[in-house]
Design goal:
Elements lengths: L10 H23 L5 H15 L7 H28 L4 H14 L3 H18 L5 H38 L1
């Protein structure tokens, strides 16, 4: 006979955990588009609460560690996407660095800063190289397109996290 040492979670507390998890996941998806909230970390926190609601019986530490690593990857996506977008459009190394710095500085200025930061950083970086207005604008457009690609990649990461969680829960 198999003896289980897992204690049951109070059903009321379990419902509260489910509701909080759902709220965090919804806010997390909103945060993937709106820079006011940290999207991926909220999705991750919601998935941890879901695992906790089931006393970590179905989704354990290995899956949660993988989900945590995916959440960490999303931070690199934010900074690299703009810089790589600028580079893809033929920007100089200074413009690429400017796009990355602009993305970082833009975090402090809300939605406008998030969108314009990489563009302005790439343009300033390209101008510091004595490039033309056309080359600087081209670098800025590349940085902005990279930023949009980064948002799409973070959305894909969030869906991948949920997919990993659901697969582990069902299998």
């Amino acid at each position: 006979m198999l003896i289980s040492f897992v204690t049951m979670i109070d059903p009321v507390f379990q419902v509260v955990l489910w509701l909080l998890a759902a709220l965090l996941i919804v806010l997390g998806f909103a945060g993937l588009i709106l820079p006011v909230m940290p999207g991926i970390p909220l999705v991750f926190a919601g998935l941890v609460l879901l695992a906790w609601a089931e006393n970590f019986v179905y989704v354990g530490w290995m899956t949660l560690t993988l989900l945590g690593l995916l959440a960490l990857v999303s931070y690199g996506v934010d900074f690299l996407a703009s810089a790589l977008g600028a580079k893809k459009f033929g920007a100089s190394p200074r413009a690429v660095a400017g796009a990355a710095l602009g993305a970082l500085a833009g975090l402090f200025f809300g939605l406008v800063g998030i969108v314009l930061g990489p563009f302005v950083g790439a343009v300033i970086g390209e101008f510091s190289r004595k490039s033309s207005v056309r080359a600087a604008a081209h670098a800025g457009v590349g940085a902005t397109l990279g930023l949009l690609f980064g948002v799409l990649l973070k959305i894909a990461l969030a869906f991948a996290m949920i997919g990993v969680f659901v697969l582990d829960r069902l299998l």
